[in-house]
Design goal:
Elements lengths: L3 H16 L5 E5 L6 E7 L10 E7 L10 E4 L44 H18 L1 H6 L1 H94 L1
Antiparallel strand pairs: 1-2, 2-3, 3-4
Helix pairs in contact: 2-4
Length: 238
């Protein structure tokens, strides 16, 4: 049970947080116990945690502010063990050096921390909204507005993925007829080319045949003229 001093101090700090929100952090006391606080950290940009949503608890001692709170993280992050008291410079393990500095992106290896790859942290950040919504009942209880935002976010992502999938299917379906039409066009073009060649050959043969007939006629005419001229010359000489 909180002392009057602790209750007064925590109530004042909650009011200050409401009036001057802390970047990337939402925190509030439990309605049943002012010593139990719940927080949500939004992963800061340009880090493996970017866009992630991490729910955890702060358990304040009854003689707060003379001792710091015990910190736990509930949402898997790749940085800390879940539901485990964290040994950090801002936790109750080191009360003399406690301060409200950010601990999320520190690489300090301490009790309660784990080592994972950056890709694992990125993956967990992407999965964190769904995890909080479907796996964390305390998140739903203390942060109903964030839970509703998560529902909309997940629904939008699912709709977007469905649209992309449908577009890919539609694109694949349209590619096949285009390919067939192209082949058909090629098939049609080839006979046309052959037909054109045949037509040209026929025209050439026809032209050659026509030229042969003309030549024959000319030769006949030449022979007739020559015969007439020769006859006249023969008659004149007689």
């Amino acid at each position: 049970m909180a002392t009057k001093a602790a209750h007064k101090r925590l109530a004042r700090e909650y009011k200050n947080i409401q009036e001057s929100p802390i970047p990337y952090i939402v925190a509030l006391p439990s309605e049943e116990n002012i010593l139990e606080w719940h927080y949500v950290i939004t992963g800061p940009p340009e880090t493996p945690y970017e866009g992630g949503q991490y729910h955890g608890t702060l358990m304040f001692p009854s003689d707060y502010p003379f001792k710091p709170p015990a910190i736990r993280m509930i949402t898997p992050s790749g940085r800390f063990k879940t539901n485990t008291r964290l040994c950090l410079s801002i936790s109750d393990y080191h009360p003399k050096t406690w301060n409200p500095a950010c601990f999320m992106v520190s690489d300090e290896t301490t009790a309660g921390s784990i080592t994972t790859s950056s890709s694992d942290k990125v993956r967990l950040a992407k999965e964190s909204h769904a995890w909080n919504l479907y796996q964390d009942s305390r998140f739903l209880k203390h942060f109903p507005e964030l839970a509703e935002e998560n529902r909309k976010l997940i629904a939008d992502k699912q709709a977007e993925a469905k649209t992309v999938s449908e577009n890919k299917t539609s694109s694949a379906a349209h590619k096949a007829p285009i390919s067939n039409n192209t082949n058909n066009a090629n098939m049609v073009t080839k006979p046309n080319s052959t037909s054109a060649n045949d037509s040209g050959n026929k025209q050439n043969r026809s032209a050659q045949s026509s030229m042969s007939t003309t030549q024959k006629i000319l030769w006949v005419c030449v022979l007739l003229v020559s015969w007439v001229v020769a006859s006249r010359m023969f008659s004149s000489s007689s």
